[in-house]
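note to self: the first set is below, dont mix up w the second
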Amino acid sequence: MTASKTPSATDLAGADTVTLLARIAAALERIAPPDSTRIDFDAADAFVWHPDPDGLIPVPRVNRVEMELLQGIDRVRDLLIENTERFAAGLPANNALLWGARGMGKSSLVKAAHAQAARKNAAAKAAPVKLIEIHREDIDSLPRLMAMLRDAPCRFILFCDDLSFDADDTSYKSLKAVLEGGIEGRPENVIFYATSNRRHLLPRDMMENERSTAINPGEAVEEKVSLSDRFGLWLGFHKCSQDEYLAMIDGYADHFQLKMDRAALHHDALEWATTRGSRSGRTAFQYIQDVAGRLGQKLD
């Protein structure tokens, strides 16, 4: 009977080294930027960016509103569509900041503009146009996402909804560097669209605090305000008039073929807006949902 061999110190050290190297390799694999060639960009027209670990999650069905239903924003609609289609065609285009009143269709317009540009490129057999949503809290991972997309065979609209920054938040510096000031610059196949209730993305008290405590107040405030300057296209959304609000109601009612007397529809819609203290596209759609539910109709 052969006696079992006791592992030597050298054998144990070698095993520990192999284990350690395997752990180091696994750690490096986790922090390395994902290879864009391994991402199936054909899986969907839209994705959501999730860092740690970095990845793009396909969105099978985008929650969007048809372009013709976006009422009362004709000028900004046309400007964003033109900018988006130029980008999709490989022509120069600007990063866009859509700012202003809540519920007036800022994010809906971005998604509708992407859908229109994507259809146009698909019909022309040009490069696919993909929409990628990045959450506000993940802005500091934006450089890694840009690196992933730089050599991909698609054109990408990066979209951040409700973008703003609070005191002691320095992630805006990552956004500034990526949009214009970084050593590599923004990839040619990437554009950045953001929506915000604030024109300058930073609260007034934050800017005033910078002015009162800085050695050179003007330079401190200028650094904060200059973030908005990285967006070449500023599109303002303002509260709608009563006529514009009712035009939204009519547009939804016609689109969904709601069977309700138009005068009664207008009367109830105005009362609905009054109880909510605002007239907006969001308020109009919420009212239409209520009407459809009461009528027993589905909004297909």
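second set (the one i keep forgetting abt)
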Amino acid sequence: MIECKRILAVVDAERDNQPALSRAYELASKTGASVTAMMVVYDLSYDMTTMLSPDERESMRDAVTKEHAKWLATHLREQGFTETDIVVEWNNRAYESIIYYTLNNQIDLVVKATKKHDDLASVIFTPTDWHLMRKCPRPVLLVKEHDWPEGGEIIAAVNVGSEDDEHAALNDKLTLIANDYASLLKGSVNLVNSYPSTPLNIAIEVPEFDPDTYHDAVKNHHLKEMRSHALKYGIPENKCVVREGLPEKVIPQVAKTLDAELVVIGTVGRVGISAALIGNTAEHVIDELNCDVLAIKPDGFVSPLSV
């Protein structure tokens, strides 16, 4: 069962409606959690005020922050949200304030809305979204504007083909969380796993290499591991998908076919140069999805902002 006592909903001042708050309240109504609405503000004109005294600059910050706090309180009342804690902080790196607040206030879940691209039908993710997925130690739920109907489909994106303990533990964690949300929303869980295509360079360079035998061996290994994993959690075989291809292609295709409401996915939280050069598989997957995404860190993850 989901143990969620405190939810942090990130508010975007540029939006008329607040899907993150709506989703946070929906979850709070089912779990008994409290909701804190947080807005991070920064005025670029502040960078041009270096000629002012420190007191004057601080007064400017306070005035802007109080103005947004007043707007937020009024906006929440107009939207029908009550009994919500309000936090407004000044920072030109919004993700830092969000993560620090999460760490210092025992937040169990961070909820943030994604944005619609002006010219495309797809959802885009902001730099703040990426930083939260990489660095926030708590689950991050990225939402779009839609309802969560009962009986919806929930996907746990697993990697059953890997033999290392970290991936196995993350698979277990993702499946348990997906089951919890399915119970909460009266939905059903689907397990989705992709496996790599036969490397063509080996088929060309090694004459005795049999690509068909290799392909069948890899596929059968993933099917066997998927059956074993699904059996452990009571998930029927018709709710398991094992498909050849890259995860960033397979998972969005399955999500679209199922019209999934939520995809639960693990992210290793790679940061620094390796993140810039390699990126995370989860991020490539998320960029192609058009539904809510719950990004989960492996056990033992330590946020670089907590060091």
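remember for set 2: The chain has a mean pLDDT of 84.
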